[in-house]
Amino acid sequence: MSNTIQKTAIAAAITLASTTSFAGELGSLTSEVKINDYENGLTKTEATIGKGSYKLSDDYSFLFDVDKDFIKNEGEARKEGWDTQFGLAQGAGSIGDFDATMYYLFRYDASWKASDESDSSDTKQYIIAPYFSKDVTLGGNDFSFGIELWAQLGNDNDESLKNKSGVETNFYLSGDLSEHWNLSLAWYNFDYYDTDEEEYDYQIGTENYLTYSLPLPAGFMFNIENYVEARHTPDSDTTLAWAHIQPELEFKKEVNEHFSWHAGVSYEAFNWEFKDAKGNKNDKDIFDNNEFQAYLGFTIK
């Protein structure tokens, strides 16, 4: 295990120890194990060691998300890795009709072969993201509208920070359409440094959820997640798209006002993946990557 990975693990342990010792200031802490099984032989197990927030003061909160990933392909060596994010959220008051929050984030992702730690890779990102939000009413329904300005420096395998430097402008809209239906829309565009051409490439995209939720007896909930994501990069004339319809049966048990545990299973009844890249023989338009998912976890708040 590399020194960077060890440091990340130690930082995660300190974070969780701190939240446990000073639970009075804990905003939330969720731990969870999630298993995804694909038809093409890919299995991924993600253990969320801790995800949540810790209130430092009235204006500052510490954010953390520490995941350990295990990935297995049929006929290939198992891989494992870290998927982490740490940061600060600073309340910045109001700007016009918007509430402003500043986010200062650090992301670290890494993977390697479990057998001998070879074939390793890592990515680091340093992010500043002002976020402006307000409540709006559309069609008689209450929604939350947000604008995110995003700037980052980042690298792959300790190479130049130019590799993943860039800016984004993102827009979000979410809210309940009715008692059982919820809508979440995101539109974004961003520029990242291209080391081959030494210029910034432009990309636009959208990521949208339409979710149906039906409460059932004894703490169960039946959900249907309808998901569409699409991206287009004009420079390479590449379009990518994903869509699925995913029914889910979820269970949640509140032990007391501060502790609950949850579990669930879901299956993609419909899954579509699309890729159209100019001059690329690996274009695809497939419907057969149905994913089964199971998870178990608990939340402290």
Would you give an account of this structure?
This is Porin. Residues 1-23 form the signal peptide. Keywords: Signal. It comes from Salinivibrio sharmensis. The protein is globular and about 50 Å long. A 14-stranded antiparallel beta barrel has the order 1-2-3-4-5-6-7-8-9-10-11-12-13-16. The chain has one domain (3-300): monomeric porin ompg (Porin, Beta Barrel), CATH 2.40.160.40. The chain is mainly beta and 301 residues long. A hairpin with a 4-residue loop joins strand 8 and strand 9 (181-194). The protein starts with a helix and ends with a strand. The model is unreliable at 1-6 and 8-24 (pLDDT under 50). It has one helix spanning 3-21, and strands at residues 26-38, 43-55, 60-72, 79-95, 98-113, 121-138, 141-156, 166-176, 181-194, 199-215, 220-233, 238-254, 259-267, 270-277, 284-286, 291-300.
